[in-house]
Write a structure and sequence with these properties.
mainly alpha, 3 helices, hydrolase activity, Glycoside hydrolase family 16 protein, 28% helix
């Protein structure tokens, strides 16, 4: 299955560790389950292909090419006709709500990376460790 070209594929690379990625992804997956437009079943092409779960975006922040591209599927684009997200020329218009969802993903990812529970050596601590609320990285954070 192809991925839309506008997606930044390095989005989850460079975090403190794989545990952080898994933690933030799990939290984002819960949010996606509550967002019916993110579900494959809400996108006719994804549904017809038999893809299940979150597609628009996936838990990794990727929008599959089966996602609804029509302008009418995106509230800020609904006065336009044809495809907007992306257009037939593969251009992502500013009115597409994909950017909002990607920002939500980044926010979840960044918040999860700060949590002590996301780092093996910090798990016995509560709150944020990497960095703390005072922007200090504790020794248990690792690299």
């Amino acid at each position: 299955m192809k991925v839309l070209k506008f997606v930044v594929t390095s989005m989850v690379i460079g975090l403190a560790g794989a545990e952080t990625i898994r933690g933030s992804t799990a939290e984002f997956e819960r949010m996606l389950q509550e967002d019916s437009s993110a579900q494959c079943s809400s996108n006719p092409v994804c549904l017809a292909m038999g893809v299940e779960g979150a597609c628009c975006p996936t838990a990794d922040g990727v929008f599959l090419d089966c996602c609804n591209r029509s302008c009418s599927a995106h509230s800020a684009c609904n006065t336009l006709a044809d495809n907007c997200c992306p257009t037939n020329d593969n251009v992502e218009l500013d009115c597409c709500d994909h950017q909002e969802k990607l920002e939500e993903f980044r926010s979840y990812r960044n918040n999860a990376a700060r949590a002590c529970s996301a780092h093996t050596s910090c798990r016995q601590l509560a709150g944020d460790c990497c960095p703390t609320v005072d922007n200090v990285y504790l020794d248990c954070c690792g690299n």
